[in-house]
Amino acid sequence: MLPSAALALLNASEPEDSSAADSLLSESGPALQRSAYFGLSYQRFGLLFDDRVNKELVDFENLRRLPNAPDWLQGFTNIRGAIIPVFDFHQLFGLELDQTSKNLSRNYLLVIGKGSEAFALPLQEFPHKLSFALAEAQPDQDLAPARLRPFIRYCFRQNRPWFWLDHNAFLQDLKSPA
Q1: pTM for this one?
Q2: Residue 132's CATH number
Q3: Which in 51, 106, 122, 136 has the greatest CB count within 10 A?
Q4: Tens of pLDDT, residues 115-131
């Protein structure tokens, strides 16, 4: 890759715009190109998000609950004037929390995305930095909770299955009436 192409990728004005990255992938072979992800670990699996997605670690405070909301929608929080939904994936997927996770989840939220496409998750542990090539993808989507399967782009293995989640499509599904 030419230095000018790498600099263009780093200076892309929209972090979620993958057109610069896609053109670089097509030049170097997408199956061999390694991509950076940040991952959230759960009991039997992990969720991957593209490292270029807007993300922010914030204090867990000022949560406003909604009456009669599903258990997995913990409520909403205000982050610099933006009203952000807070989802509990443990509740959504029927997973248990250990005591260490319970303590951390009371302290921090990970905000993913921006604007009306943002959502927050209580952290059960700090995110992992991971790197995979598409050639490493495996057909293990059936190991994911059924609710996630339609939104998984790829599955990778590193001590557990890691599912690359299309978080925008998943968010739209959560927002749609049941």
Answers
A1: 0.71
A2: 2.40.50.180
A3: 122
A4: 888 999 998 788 889 99
